[in-house]
Amino acid sequence: MKARFVPEMHRFILQHTMIEDGETVLVAVSGGADSLALLYGLHALHTQLNCHLHVVHLDHGFRPDSASDAKFVHEHAIRLGLSFTGHAVDLPLLIKQWKLSVEAAGRKARYDFYESVCTKVGATKVALGHQQDDIAETVLMNLIRGSGTTGLKGIKPIRDGKYIRPLSRFTREEIETYLKVKGIVPRQDSTNTDKRYLRNRIRHELIPLLEQNYNPNIKTGLSKTAEILRDESKYLDEIAFALYDSCRLSFTQSINIILDRDVFLKHHIVLQRRVLRHCITDIIGQVSDYSYEHYQAMHDIINVDKPNAVIALPHGLRFRRCYQQLIFENDSVKTEDFEYPLNPSGITNITALNAEISARIYRIYNESPSGTVTIPDGTYEAMFDYSKIELPMIIRNRQEGDRFQPYGMQGTKKIKDFFIDAKVPLCERDRIPMLVCGNEILWIIGFTTNERFKVHPQTQKCLHLHYARDNIVS
Question: Is the pLDDT reported for residue 473 higher than 50?
Answer without folding.
Answer: no
